[in-house]
Amino acid sequence: MTGTPEIPVIELVQPMPGFPELARFALVRVDDTGALCSLTSLDQPGLRFLVVPPATFFPDYAPEVEDTILTDLGSSSVDDLVMLCVLTAGESLASTTANLAAPVVLDIATHRAVQVVLDDPQLSVTTPLIA
Amino acid sequence: MLVVSRRAGESVVIGDNITVSVLEVRGDVVRIGIDAPRSVAVHREELLAQLAQSNQEAASPPEGAVDSLLKGIRDRSKDA
């Protein structure tokens, strides 16, 4: 449950679809355990995305990350990679969805990240957070 | 836009290292093969549009929604 670090400056190596202008974010804990975090834009005040480590809600979720991603992020080890899923908050936990089709992969050593488009028809951008 | 007619089995080449081949034409479905360097991202257009929309809907949730989500997550970890 613990382990998601706060990172003051993250550089997106490719912009998130829908937000072509934004490259710099901070990873901020929304609660003190890091179960819920936010990617907060450093370029556009007030803009943030809620993210969670998928293991809490989707223990079987372990998509393969291509080698090119590691190159893009300047990663020296897969152990430095953290995966985060973007949440669309509903009125309650039950109506909140997670984007499993495009997780954010973050290298905690290089502080670079990218929203990876998995292109797997089994994965939905609006997967209910709790079944 | 460049428009070319191709038959199944024929290709077009883009730049030095991208080849787009028509593999099969059946009814209104065209199967296309794309040979590109791994550094070139190739995605279905509608998937990218779906992602852009999903990201826009996810952006900057209202504080109330964040609070109830946080409460839900806390209750859930208590149960676990």
Describe this protein's structure.
- The complex is a heterodimer of chains A (131) and B (80).
- In chain A, a hairpin with a 6-residue loop joins β3 (37-41) and β4 (48-52).
- The longest helix of chain A is centred in the middle third of the chain and has 7 residues, at 67-73.
- Chain A is globular, with a radius of gyration of 14 Å.
- Chain A has one helix and nine strands.
- The model of chain A has no long low-confidence stretch (mean pLDDT 91).
- In chain A, strands 1-2-3-4-5-7-8 form a seven-stranded mixed β-barrel.
- Chain A is 5% helix and 32% strand.
- Chain A is mostly beta strands and 131 residues long.
- The longest helix of chain B has 17 residues, at 63-79.
- Helix content of chain B is 39%, strand content 25%.
- Chain B has a three-stranded antiparallel beta sheet with strand order 1-2-3, with no helix packed on it.
- In chain B, β2 and β3 form a beta hairpin.
- Chain B is elongated, with a radius of gyration of 22 Å.
- With 80 residues, chain B is an alpha+beta fold.
- The A-B interface holds A 1, 14, 16-19, 30-31, 33, 35-36, 46-50, 52, 56, 66-68, 71, 86-94, 96, 99, 101-102, 115, 117, 119, 125-126, 130 and B 38-39, 41, 43-44, 47-48, 50-62, 65-66, 68-70, 72-74, 76-77.
Highlighted features:
heterodimer; A: about 130 residues; mainly beta; 9 strands; about 5% helix; B: about 80 residues; alpha+beta; three-stranded antiparallel sheet
Summarize the structure in short.
With 131 residues, chain A is mainly β. Chain A has one helix and nine strands.
